[in-house]
């Protein structure tokens, strides 16, 4: 059985040990070491394993196998053999972060248990998020605010965290470790915890969402909560500054902005519609008439696609005409409309004949066809060719 220094003193950042066994790892370039004692916490109970170094070799993962703790070490060469003495150094910021999140979890679980009779059935401590799964919920914002306040009060009370080992009856090797926050919580846990609740720092609940008949609660503690606060504060300050308000007024300012945006979009649409009617009537007034059918040909270098679609819609509502509408900027796009009900003039057929001018694609039917291409300079010849074909058909 590997002696667990991390239980005896969870603040031990460096330790000496003797290598008992070495075996190859499944990961290429790595081997696994068994030590007589270790300060590295092996993955378990929702808490990820520690990382660090063993005599300068990187420890990437630590795990428990029966009562043995194996260290996966990046080293393919010499230097780590059974019988050697090694110095272990923990990645302490990582470990302390885990200790803060883990004790924060104990405190939150205790508050939910004591106040809502909700049991914790899952715990996950990830690189980004920390979650617990509860057998009740989801909870309202009001309830979450109350839980947050009670949990942070336990932090502010700076209560001593006690842990003790009791032997598991019926087993020689298994021992159960009890972790106790006096007056609040006692539970079996193998993880690492700070010596007092004050070290958890802030506990902040981020969200509660329905999960497997209960809820999943996402939260942050300690330095993670501080980092999140800094990030959110910076973001909201920047957003508020760009809207020329203080960050407490940000939400109202965004609502106002969305309202303005909606109004502007409506005005933009109205203006486009009015413009397209005027433009259409102007083009129709100038159009040459063949066999009683006005034929409009437009090849515009400045018009935007949105305007083209408005204009085309306006022509769809005009009676008895043919409109060949195109824009070249930034790439050629066109709409061909035939309002004459004359089946001999098929816009789709003519599109197929002439679209090679712009090296493009398109399609439609006898009354309406559209498309686009990659040769802007080919659009005017294409529309002119189609116009000539239309005139020929109308004869
Ligand atoms: Zn624990």
Structural write-up:
With 395 residues, the chain is of the alpha+beta class. The chain has 3 domains: 3-90, Elongation Factor Tu (Ef-tu), domain 3; 96-239, Threonyl-trna Synthetase, Chain A, domain 2 (Threonyl-tRNA Synthetase, Chain A, domain 2), CATH 3.30.980; 269-394, Roll (Diaminopimelate Epimerase, Chain A, domain 1). Helix content is 35%, strand content 31%. The protein has helices at 5-8, 92-116, 141-156, 222-242, 250-286, 305-316, 347-354, 379-394; strands at residues 3-4, 14-24, 30-35, 37-38, 52-54, 57-65, 68-74, 85-90, 120-125, 130-134, 162-167, 175-181, 185-188, 203-211, 214-221, 288-290, 293-300, 322-327, 333-338, 361-364, 368-372. Strands 2-3-7-6-5-8 form a 6-stranded antiparallel barrel. A 6-stranded mixed β-sheet has the order 16-17-18-19-21-20, sandwiched between helices. The protein has a 4-stranded antiparallel β-sheet with strand order 9-10-15-14. β16 and β17 (293-300) form a beta hairpin. The mean pLDDT is 93. It binds zinc ion (ZN). Zinc ion (ZN) binds at residues 102, 106, 179, 189, 191, 193.
């Amino acid at each position: 059985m590997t002696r667990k220094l991390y239980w005896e003193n969870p603040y031990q950042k460096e330790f000496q040990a003797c290598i008992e066994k070495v075996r190859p790892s499944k990961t290429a370039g790595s081997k696994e070491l068994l030590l007589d004692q270790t300060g590295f916490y092996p993955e378990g109970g929702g808490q990820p394993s520690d990382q660090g170094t063993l005599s300068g070799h990187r420890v990437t993962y630590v795990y428990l196998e029966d009562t043995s703790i194996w260290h996966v070490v990046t080293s393919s060469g010499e230097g780590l053999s059974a019988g050697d003495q090694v110095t272990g150094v923990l990645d302490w910021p990582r470990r302390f972060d885990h200790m803060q999140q883990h004790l924060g979890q104990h405190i939150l679980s205790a508050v939910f248990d004591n106040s809502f009779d909700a049991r914790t059935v899952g715990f996950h401590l990830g690189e980004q998020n920390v979650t617990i799964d509860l057998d009740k919920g989801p909870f309202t914002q009001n309830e979450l605010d109350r839980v947050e306040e009670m949990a942070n009060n336990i932090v502010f009370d700076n209560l001593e965290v006690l842990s003790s080992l009791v032997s598991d009856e019926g087993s020689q090797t298994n021992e159960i470790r009890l972790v106790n926050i006096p007056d609040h919580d006692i539970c079996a846990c193998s993880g690492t915890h700070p010596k007092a609740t004050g070290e958890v720092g802030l506990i902040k609940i981020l969200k509660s969402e329905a999960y497997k008949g209960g809820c999943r609660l996402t939260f942050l503690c300690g330095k993670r909560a501080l980092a999140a606060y800094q990030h959110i504060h910076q973001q909201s300050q920047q957003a508020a500054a760009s809207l020329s308000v203080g960050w407490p007024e940000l939400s109202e300012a965004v609502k106002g902005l969305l309202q303005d945006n909606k109004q502007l979009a409506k005005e933009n649409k109205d203006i486009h519609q009015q413009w397209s009617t005027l433009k259409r009537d102007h083009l129709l007034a100038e159009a040459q008439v063949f066999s009683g059918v006005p034929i409009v040909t437009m090849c515009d270098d400045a018009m935007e696609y949105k305007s083209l679609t408005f204009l085309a819609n306006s022509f769809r509502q005009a009676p008895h005409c043919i409109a060949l509408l195109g824009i070249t900027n930034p790439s050629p796009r066109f709409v061909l409309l035939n309002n004459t009900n004359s089946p001999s003039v098929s816009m789709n057929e003519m599109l197929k004949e002439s679209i090679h001018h712009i090296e493009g694609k398109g399609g439609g039917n006898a009354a309406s066809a559209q498309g686009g291409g990659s040769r802007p300079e080919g659009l005017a010849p294409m529309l002119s060719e189609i116009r000539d074909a239309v005139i020929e058909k109308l004869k």
